[in-house]
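Can't paste images in this forum, so I'm doing it all in text. The chain is below; anyone willing to post the predicted structure tokens underneath?
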Amino acid sequence: MIRYITRVAIALSVFLNVLTGGASNQTFSARNWDWKRRGLPHIVGVIDLILGEDHCVGCWINWQIRK
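Text version of the structure:
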């Protein structure tokens, strides 16, 4: 059941990212880390506070590997 919930959460994150103009294969967390890297406004601190320390950078690394 946990695996199912995790997959649904990832799908919702990708959907949110696409709705806000992001790539169709990138999570919202990974996109925010990319924004932080490029000096753009981001909410990495909020996301990491809710989902755990270094969540966004981990998502970004995973996205880079899968790209």
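Residues 2-19 form the longest helix (18 residues). Helices lie at 2-19, 28-37, 44-51, 55-66.
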